[in-house]
Write a structure and sequence with these properties.
Length: about 160
Amino acid sequence: MNKGGVGLGSGGGGGPTAAAAAQAAQKQKSLQQRVDSDIGNIVDNFSFVVNVARVNDPPVRNSQEAFMMEMRAARMVQAADSLLKLVSELKQTAIFSGFASLNDHVEQRTEELNQQAEKTDRMLSRIGEEAASSLKDLESHYYSSSIRTTTQSPSQP
């Protein structure tokens, strides 16, 4: 949202709109990469936990596998937490972009109303000029008419 007036009215693809679109595209790409990475982590760690979940006879091997399962489960929890944070971020983005959209609509409507007010002012000015011109014509006709001269004649001594 650029309140300084820079880029307003420029139709050339630059300005705050193009920058915001580029930033939104970059953010979307970044979020998609995070989602892909987190889901890949969850799937990889889950498949490892399932593969290691076999029961073996040697107690040392079982304790190593248990440790690996705990480590992979912790990684799954971290990836799930990252996804939850991503969802929260997406919700905030949706809320704030909604406000940005609303602000853009308000600014657009304000501009439309300002243009309409200017058009109305020009029309009222034109009507005033036409009324003044018509009044001049009417006064001219009245002062040069025979009715005026006949109504003033009896009152003159």
